[in-house]
TrEMBL record:
Protein name, as recorded: Protein-L-isoaspartate O-methyltransferase
Keyword check for Methyltransferase: yes
InterPro entries (UniProt xref): Methyltran_FxLD, PCMT, SAM-dependent_MTases_sf
Gene Ontology annotations of biological process type: methylation
PANTHER family, A to Z: PROTEIN-L-ISOASPARTATE O-METHYLTRANSFERASE, PROTEIN-L-ISOASPARTATE(D-ASPARTATE) O-METHYLTRANSFERASE
First-listed, main subcellular location of the protein, grouped into a coarse class: cytoplasm
Organism: Micromonospora globbae
Encoding gene (name): fxlM
Entry's family note: Belongs to the methyltransferase superfamily. L-isoaspartyl/D-aspartyl protein methyltransferase family.
Pfam families: PCMT
Domain of life where this protein originates: Bacteria
Length: 392
């Protein structure tokens, strides 16, 4: 089953590196998920042993193996390295222990005593007792075993705290699922020689349970109806005419089509959110989709361009004449629907003409120790620094 899981991850293009494949073949994933059926344990898209809090939210899981493969590939962990994993489960730490080998070292830290206990037990069962398992709030890193060649964050982070940078070697890399502009992107940051700025070598789609403790962040949810809402990050100052938007939701929408292929929606989403005016994420419950109030694309959240009492978001339709077999379009509601649709469609066409590829964004993180006065283009200011996204 381990071999079959690795074969699937290779076929999906998620494992290209032989050391990641060898580690996934070697580590018994089921040792870290006692009680879970084996077929489930060795699927590539399934999280295991979820821990749910009193409000019904997931606070911990052993991540799906396809996410772990992506993270390990982004991290480029090598034999002999010293690695810190933030957020434990045991399995991923065991994979890293396989890769770094006897000359390397792995530390994993979790804020939750139950998770630390479970991770230790799994590592013991599977024979990876050399991994240091630490109970702490990772906002402050783990100074005891620093400096690290790699810091792999497996929990959704709002920011990059100074301790992580202090505990990273000069040529170290941080792989972190970072939240900004209402979305999360899994980003591999390297230091820029001679500068405190971090530069993303690569980024991918990836979502994780949110960070707890000192680095925890909140979101703003602005309900338009009980089933439809706009979501903003905690540092956004956007405001909306909610009664006008509620009214617009029930007016006949306008649809416009771009002729551009619908493909790589995560890349288009990143472009829409970081290239022009600030856009909230439009979310809806299944009921609103079923009642035809919003298009199904809204179910998982989609950027919306809001102008007064009108708004627009992207949709797709089948079109065999495009490269992907689907075409991107826009649906808009409200008195200014035509104009808002035209504005969003123009943004989509620019992306399709200039940035229709993976990795087109240039992402940098500027810690507060860096001079951020010259930052031009899209950026967002966080607690410990600013994140900038440029479209060169
Ligand atoms: C997705 S799970 C980690 C999965 C794990 N890396 C694996 O083997 O797949 C995220 C973990 O982050 C932990 N966490 C949340 N906030 C934290 C913090 N401030 N410091 C350390 N751990 C934290 C949660 O308790 C949870 O167990």
């Amino acid at each position: 089953m381990r071999q079959a899981m690795v074969n699937r991850l290779r076929e999906e293009g998620l494992i290209n590196c032989d050391s990641v494949a060898a580690a996934m073949r070697a580590v018994p994933r089921h040792d870290f998920a006692p009680g879970e059926p084996l077929e489930k344990v060795y699927r590539t898209d399934t999280t295991l042993v979820p821990k749910i809090d009193a409000q019904g939210r997931q606070t911990s899981v052993v991540s799906a193996s396809h996410i772990q493969a992506i993270q390990l590939e982004l991290a480029e962990v090598r034999p002999g390295m010293n690695v810190l994993e933030i957020g434990s489960g045991g399995y991923n730490a065991a994979l890293m222990a396989e890769i770094v080998g006897p000359t390397g070292s792995v530390t994993t830290v979790d804020i939750d005593a139950d998770v630390v206990h479970r991770a230790r037990a799994g590592l013991h069962r599977a024979g990876y007792e050399q991994v240091n398992v630490v109970l702490a709030d990772a906002e402050h890193g783990v100074a005891q075993y620093a400096p690290y060649n790699r810091i792999i964050v497996t929990v959704g982070a709002w920011d990059i705290p100074p301790a992580w940078l202090d505990q990273l070697t000069p040529d170290g890399r941080i792989v972190v699922p970072l939240r900004f502009a209402g979305i999360t992107r899994l980003i591999a940051f390297d230091r820029t020689p001679g500068s405190p700025v971090l530069t993303a070598g690569n980024y991918r789609l990836g979502s994780f349970v949110p960070m707890q403790g000192d680095g925890a962040a909140s979101e703003q949810l602005i309900p338009v109806t009980p089933d439809v809402g706009l979501r903003l990050d905690q540092n956004s100052a956007l405001t909306f005419d909610v009664p006008a938007l509620r009214k617009a939701l029930h007016t006949k929408p306008v649809e416009s089509w771009s002729g551009a292929p619908f493909d790589m929606p995560d890349e288009l989403e990143l472009y829409l959110l970081t290239s022009g005016p600030e856009l909230p994420m439009l979310h809806a419950a299944q009921a609103a989709v079923e009642q035809g109030v919003v298009n199904p694309t809204v179910r998982n959240g989609t950027p919306a361009l809001v102008r007064g009492g009108s708004f627009a978001y992207r949709i797709k339709r089948e079109n065999p004449q495009t490269a992907s077999g689907y075409e991107t379009g826009v649906i808009a509601h409200g008195p200014e629907a035509e104009q808002v649709a035209g504005e969003l469609l123009a943004m989509i066409c620019t992306w399709a003409d200039c940035y229709y590829r993976r990795g087109a964004a240039h992402i940098t993180y500027h810690p507060n120790t860096a001079d951020t006065s010259g930052l031009i283009g899209w950026h967002t200011t966080k607690r410990h620094g600013a994140l900038a996204v440029a479209w060169p």
